[in-house]
Design brief:
CATH class of the largest domain: Mainly Alpha
Strand content: under 5%
Oligomer: single chain
Radius of gyration: 30 Å
Distance between the termini: 46 Å
Number of domains: 3
Number of strands: 6
Largest sheet: 3 strands, mixed
Length: 599
């Protein structure tokens, strides 16, 4: 039944494809990709919300801590079991998978990523794994965009836009934040894009946000209400907070990377490693309950100025009773979070660093304001510091300051904090870039050599299209044209090669100026001859939809400087010159290198 529905859907899309021009079909495609990616994001968020609510019901009944804290272990173990036995593949995680596919696999992402991350991250995070859902959501959306483009044979350039559209729709749906979705796609996913690329991505992200508004209730979405307006007297404090965010971002990235790498390299089988990681996460949650799951409930408690609620479930809650000990508890949470995420992902769980970054930012911002109050400062806007620091850490960890600024602006429902958001995000980003020129995802790929010179060359070639290189200013010669007319036409032209075609515009050969010299010197020899009698075969022909890499090979093999272009029915389209091909290639190389330097 499902296959029949899928086939009918594909036939409808193919019919529509035949009726629309490429731009119209791209815009429709971005809407469909956004719709599908947003549906997957909403489904994942709802599953995790209800699963988490179900298993934490034991806490409400004051059941045993031990039963509750076994769930992270169960979640990681089940994730490994499903990956091994059901999907039978390696669980690849993080935005680096998308960037790798763009640079090394012609933006092709395997189909399994369209659903594997929804299932595995739902189990990992729903059962309390200390990680986030946004990275799996972005991966799922990008995979949907890539495979949609593959199904309908969409070009590499537009395939990139659909990958970014899927990612934007996922973020837009996860937070009901369409602007953040668009900016995240441009800052994290796309390497090279023009202003025109905004339109399909905006359509996809807006679609995701609309669906989120309809199907995700307030308890699932992360949203806040500002309790205090921005006061410019607090700008010095925001600057100090920005510096802290920058340094904490760098430390978080390094601790997480080291922890994940350490546990991945442990000489244990996958199931033993999953059990070991689950036990460690359980022990950490026993001491620091905000480490359980995504941690959005803990962020809301801080933003609502109720830090005492975070201590209720800790076995050391009596120990953290004084104000200074509460501060110590808050600091421990944001310091240990990077370790908890590294353990979760390194031992087989699935998730990402988006939600953990927000949690670290919330705890850092609140800790900073709480410390100021303990030192005697009054009227400190803890709620504002908490929210602004979330943007600071997100900006520093992902190197995406614009997405971070607009995310907090959108989830707070206004732009009251826009100035401090800009200050903290920008300074945090600058500090993070000073110590680490790449974000965590791109750094991993640079260390693997993905962005070496050859990959930039490949990307430049893949970004070019044969159809864009065709020159149509060569006058054509009908195969039956008298040779006298051919000679007269050539003598009036500044070209030295001409295509010979039939009345049906089919390409049959070429006429070169050098081949006609003997006829020009002997007018009598032109009698009774037509163009078809003096034409020669082209050393090679190029198809109008042929990859540019193949065109380059044909130029090399034929040792030619100009080649005719035809379609599959041998209809003449024009010529491609070697000069224009390599000039365009060099321009693409320079453009991509400039983009990579800014990563």
């Amino acid at each position: 039944m499902a296959k029949k529905i899928t086939l009918k859907y594909e036939r409808v899309i193919e019919y529509i494809h035949s009726r629309l021009n490429p731009l119209q079909f791209l815009l429709l495609s971005s809407f469909l990709v956004g719709l599908t990616a947003a549906t997957a994001a909403i489904l994942l968020k709802r599953i995790v919300f209800h699963l988490h609510d179900l298993i934490t019901y034991n806490y409400k009944l004051q059941y045993s801590y031990i039963i509750y804290l076994l769930f992270p272990l169960i979640g990681i173990f089940l994730t490994v079991l499903i990956v091994k036995k059901v999907f039978r593949t390696k669980l690849e995680k993080g935005n680096s998978l998308i960037i790798y596919a763009i640079h090394k696999k012609s933006a092709m992402i395997d189909k399994v990523h369209m659903y594997m991350h929804v299932i595995t991250s739902a189990i990992t995070v729903g059962f309390g794994g200390s990680t986030g859902l946004e990275s799996p959501i972005v991966l799922t959306g990008s995979a949907i965009g890539s495979n949609y483009a593959r199904t309908y044979q969409i070009s590499y350039k537009d395939r990139l836009l659909l990958i970014a559209s899927g990612a934007a729709a996922g973020i837009g749906a996860a937070f009901n934040a369409p602007i953040s979705g668009v900016l995240f796609a441009f800052e994290v996913i796309l390497v090279n894009a023009s202003v025109s690329a905004f339109i399909p991505i905006i359509i996809a992200s807006a679609t995701g946000a609309i669906l989120s508004k309809i199907f995700l209730k307030e308890g699932i979405l992360l949203n806040f209400k500002l309790k205090e307006p921005f006061n410019y007297y607090n700008i010095p404090f925001y600057i100090v907070l920005a510096l802290l965010c920058g340094f904490v971002s760098v430390v978080y990235a390094r601790i997480f990377t080291s922890t994940e790498s350490y546990f991945k390299k442990l000489k244990m089988n996958a199931y033993g490693k999953a059990l070991f990681g689950g036990i460690l996460i359980a022990l950490l949650c026993l001491c620091l309950p905000p480490l359980f799951g995504e941690g959005y409930a803990s962020i809301k408690n801080l933003a609502e100025l109720h830090p005492e609620k975070l201590l209720e479930k800790s076995i050391f809650r009596e120990f953290f009773s004084s104000p200074w000990m509460i501060l110590l508890f808050l600091v421990l949470v944001f310091v240990v979070k990077a370790i908890a995420v590294g353990i979760t992902l390194g031992t087989g769980g699935n998730g990402g660093n988006f939600a953990p970054s927000l949690l670290v930012g919330a705890f850092l911002g609140f800790s900073f304001s709480y410390a100021l109050m303990l030192f005697g400062f009054k009227d400190i806007p803890s709620n504002n510091f908490c929210l602004v620091a979330m943007a600071g850490i997100l900006s520093g960890v992902f190197h995406a300051p614009l997405a971070a600024i607009f995310l907090i602006a959108e989830i707070t429902g206004g732009y009251e904090l826009f100035l401090p958001l800009m200050i903290v995000s920008a300074l945090s980003y600058m500090i993070s870039r000073y110590f680490d020129n790449y974000s965590m995802d791109t750094k991993k790929l640079f260390l693997q050599g993905v962005f070496k010179k050859e990959s930039i060359d490949d990307l430049a070639i893949k970004s070019m299209h044969t159809a864009d290189l065709i020159e149509t200013d060569h006058a054509t010669i009908d195969e039956g044209m008298p040779l006298t007319d051919v000679v007269n036409m050539i003598m009036r032209s500044d070209k030295n090669i001409f295509p010979v075609i039939t009345k049906e515009n089919k390409f049959t050969g070429i006429v070169k100026t050098d081949d006609l010299k003997k006829y020009m010197l002997d007018p009598e020899s032109q009698a009774d001859l037509v163009a078809a009698d003096v034409q020669s075969a082209a050393s090679a022909m190029v198809l109008d939809r042929e990859p540019v890499s193949n065109v380059m090979k044909k130029f090399e093999e034929a040792e030619a400087w100009i080649l005719p272009v035809v379609d599959e029915a041998l209809q003449y389209k024009g010529f491609i010159t070697r000069t224009k091909l390599y000039e365009n290639y060099r321009n693409q190389i320079l453009q991509i290198r400039n983009e990579v330097k800014r990563v």
